[in-house]
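Q: What structure does this chain adopt?
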Amino acid sequence: MPTSPSDPKKNGMKPADAEPFRVLLQALRARLRGDVSQLTESALRKTRSEASGDLSSMPIHMADIGSDNYEQEFTLNMLAAEEGTLHLIQEALARIESGVYGACVECGGRIKKPRLHAIPYTPLCIDCANQRERV
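A:
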């Protein structure tokens, strides 16, 4: 565990170094927003029986209801995960604006570039991320 937090401004990236990450994060945000829109439409679409015009309360087969419920629950879980990622992307873009992108939000240390290339929206250095996972 880090002993004392260092100055995030000092360990943040220079604007020129952060620019490629800004472009990457904006592209990722745009793609995820499209995915979220699609998932929302999918979660709200009619069930098979409603789509076929059968509005009776008795389905043809109970497995159809189970399948519809599973698909809707799966879609809603994916939607929640993607919304969380969108939130992290927004926070990363805000860190770029404030000049602290690349600095760990917990310890203030520098996040290594390979980690940022793998997960550009990560707010934590690898040590702090590992520490959180152990808890």
